[in-house]
Design brief:
- The chain has 324 residues and is of the alpha/beta class.
- It folds into 2 domains: 6-140, Glycogen Phosphorylase B (Rossmann fold), CATH 3.40.50; 158-322, Rossmann fold, CATH 3.40.50.
- It has helices spanning 15-19, 22-31, 46-49, 67-74, 89-98, 109-118, 129-132, 155-164, 186-198, 228-236, 247-254, 305-308, 312-322; strands at residues 6-10, 36-42, 57-61, 81-84, 103-104, 170-174, 202-205, 221-222, 240-244, 259-263, 279-283.
- 44% of the residues are buried.
């Protein structure tokens, strides 16, 4: 195969999925050091990839921007390889507008559906999403290198981190998730924060601006609403991060921080377990879980036991097992 010079990669979102593209991007860059990799993603996630040494350019899709405008920018380059890591109707529409030969990957929809319907994983292994993406790059003959995802930040974002961070050691908590059923109850977060402070840890809450109100306590330094680069830098210096099945969980693993992952309605078997990281997964064994691939607005059983019965004591024990 000739040395590729231009590689186009599309993954619009969400945050965790974008972070999990980086093992593939690194593998392509290492195998073809002369290739310029361009990644298309939503503008809100572009900062996560902006400083990555394997990426030559990040092409952001702004909110409300028509695909035709994005496609017009992309058509100006004669791409050697075009990889669709998203596979949605929007991504397929972009493929048609840009033209050329594309490679994609197949989401394990049947496996996920069987796991939701039966509660039993009928497959021998669970391939992480980060490694599923490699199917789209089969023409490039690259393989996972066994290393975690990786994210980088700017010196300015590091300086901002140093201004905001409490004294070490601190533990990051992530109270928010995109879907309500994946959220740990606010009272549990507050009791965990009290336990952490009693154990000598400062506590920092991170997440989106609209998640700031999920936790409020004198025990917590609430920094929800920061840009993603500063958030990544704060996660990097944390002793441990505690998060549900959400994007900041994967951002934490990508900066090398041990994580306690709280799984309720969803399952690590869907491919979103902490990837190549020091981690403890905390989950209840219940006949009704998993009940969803992505979570939802309401518990189908109306009891939400999968998250309520994950006690602060159990999570604290997991933190203690990982803390240096």
């Amino acid at each position: 195969m000739n040395q590729p010079t231009t590689v186009l990669v599309v993954r619009f979102g969400a945050l965790g999925d974008v972070v999990l593209t980086t093992p593939l991007l690194r593998a392509i860059h290492r195998a073809y050091s002369g290739a310029a990799i361009t990644v298309v993603t939503k503008a809100r996630w572009a900062p996560v990839l902006a400083h990555h040494p394997s990426i030559a350019h990040v092409e952001p899709l702004a909110d409300g921007e028509p695909l035709t405008a994005l496609a017009a920018r992309l058509r100006s380059t004669p791409w050697d390889h075009r990889l669709d890591l998203h596979g949605t109707l929007r991504a397929r529409a972009l493929r048609i507008l840009v033209g050329g030969r594309w490679r994609g990957w197949r989401r394990p929809r049947i496996r996920r559906a069987l796991l939701v319907w039966t509660g039993v994983d009928r497959f021998a292994t669970s391939t992480p999403v980060a490694e599923q993406y490699f199917a789209a790059a089969r023409d490039l003959a690259v393989r996972p290198d066994g290393e975690p995802a990786e994210v980088f930040w700017s010196p300015a974002e590091e300086a901002r981190r140093d201004e905001l961070a409490p004294p070490s050691p601190y533990v990051v908590i992530v109270p928010g998730t995109a879907h309500a059923t994946k959220r740990w109850p606010p009272g549990h977060w507050l009791r965990l924060a009290g336990r952490l402070r009693a154990a000598g840890f400062h506590v920092v809450a991170l997440g989106a601006e609209d998640e700031r109100g999920l936790v409020s306590s004198a025990d917590i330094t609430n920094l929800c609403g920061l840009d993603l680069g500063t958030t990544a830098a704060l996660l990097h210096n944390a002793a441990v991060a505690v998060a549900g099945d959400t994007g900041l969980l994967h951002l934490a693993t990508a900066v090398g921080t041990p994580v306690v992952a709280l799984f309720g309605p969803t399952s690590p078997a869907f491919g979103y377990a902490p990837y190549r990281a020091r981690a403890r997964i905390v989950a209840q064994s219940l006949p009704c879980r998993p009940c969803s691939v992505y979570g939802g607005a309401h518990c189908p059983m109306r009891h939400h036991r999968c998250m309520i019965e994950l006690t602060p004591d159990t999570v604290m024990h997991a933190v203690e097992a990982l803390a240096p």
